[in-house]
Design brief:
By secondary structure, this protein is α+β, with helices and mostly antiparallel strands. The chain has one domain: 2-Layer Sandwich (NE0471 N-terminal domain-like). The chain contains three helices and five strands, in the order βββααββα. The N and C termini lie far apart (24 Å). The relative contact order is 0.24.
Length: 86
Amino acid sequence: MHPRVITVRPLSPFTVELTFADGTRGTVDLSRWIVGSEGVFAALQERAYFRRVTVDPEAGTIVWPNGADLDPDVLYELAQQAHTTT
């Protein structure tokens, strides 16, 4: 189990900057889960709604008001990849 998300900052459409409990920071493109999606992820295609992302401190991941969320372990792996390539 990886460290959990402690801060999120929405950037360009479908991209967020994440900080994890161990200090890892990275920019993660979430478009693969959002673009063309249905269900809870469909609302995230609207820029204003996407920007309503917050951190759920109990789950240690990012969430939106409609209950959409992503696995924090996947986010950590992506943030680490982004961090090592920048």
